[in-house]
Amino acid sequence: MTTELTSERDAELADAELTETELADAELADAELQAPDARLFDLERALEAIFMVADEPQGLVALATALGRPVAAVRQTIERLVDDYDGVNGTVRRGFELREVAGGWRLYVRGDYDQIVRDFVLTENPTRLSQAALETLSVIAYKQPITRSAIASIRAVNVDSVVRTLLGRGLITEVSTDGETGAIYYGTTDLLLTQLGLNSLDELPKISPLLADGAEGFDDQFH
């Protein structure tokens, strides 16, 4: 009888020790997630570097895969960056923000500074548009709404910098975002109509007479 009681007590003590160990491990893991240690700060810098060059919203899974980190860690780090840029907890509110769009994340100029940025771009770049910019603008004007990848496919060149230039000039704008891929669709603005002296896009000249074979349509050339 004594031996059985001793065995039961030892089993209870073993269970208690195991529970305490598990709790300690859980508390340690939780502390590592909440405390922004050096390793997590490195993740913040890595995410910032990606957002600086990304032209499309970046999903959590894609970011986690690229950086080799858990999705949960990426999500928590992004939340800290959002708070940091927004001036939460005493930090300086930045002129840009990290915004979630169509299931992805991307850096945007904060709305308060849109006009300032537009005036700067127009002041610093008063020259005429390049041939590449004019060609890209023409594709957008006739094919809108259209994604950046579709423009690149039509022109058979990378159009990232040209699209940024046209956005900065206020000649095109982001009109919508694909809910599945996160791709941004672009269209022209009223500023383009003003500079062309048109009342609407319907007044754009027909493209067929400008093609090698006038019998073909604009769409036929691009499919």
- Percent of residues in β-strands: 5-15%
Number of strands: 5
Report the order of strands and helices.
HHHHEEHHEHHEEHH
Supply the number of helical segments: 10
- Helicity level: 55-70%
Radius of gyration: 27 Å
- Gross morphology: globular
- Low-pLDDT windows of residues: 23-39, 213-223
Structural class by helix and strand composition: mainly alpha
Instruction: Please report the distance between the alpha carbons of the first and last residues.
Output: 89 Å
What this model shows, in words?
Helix 2 crosses helix 4. The protein has ten helices and five strands. It is globular, with a radius of gyration of 27 Å. The protein is mostly helical. The strands form two sheets. A three-stranded antiparallel beta sheet has the order 3-5-4. It has a two-stranded antiparallel sheet with strand order 1-2. It has helices at 2-34, 38-53, 60-67, 71-86, 114-124, 131-143, 148-155, 160-169, 190-196, 218-221, and strands at residues 96-101, 104-109, 146-147, 172-177, 184-188. The N and C termini lie far apart (89 Å).
In brief:
This protein is mostly helical. The protein is built from ten helices and five strands; from the N terminus they run ααααββααβααββαα. It is globular.
List keywords for this structure.
single chain; 223 residues; mainly alpha; 57% helix
Question: How is the topology of this model organized?
Answer:
Elements: H1 2-34, H2 38-53, H3 60-67, H4 71-86, E1 96-101, E2 104-109, H5 114-124, H6 131-143, E3 146-147, H7 148-155, H8 160-169, E4 172-177, E5 184-188, H9 190-196, H10 218-221
Antiparallel strand pairs: 1-2, 3-5, 4-5
Helix pairs in contact: 2-4, 3-4, 6-8
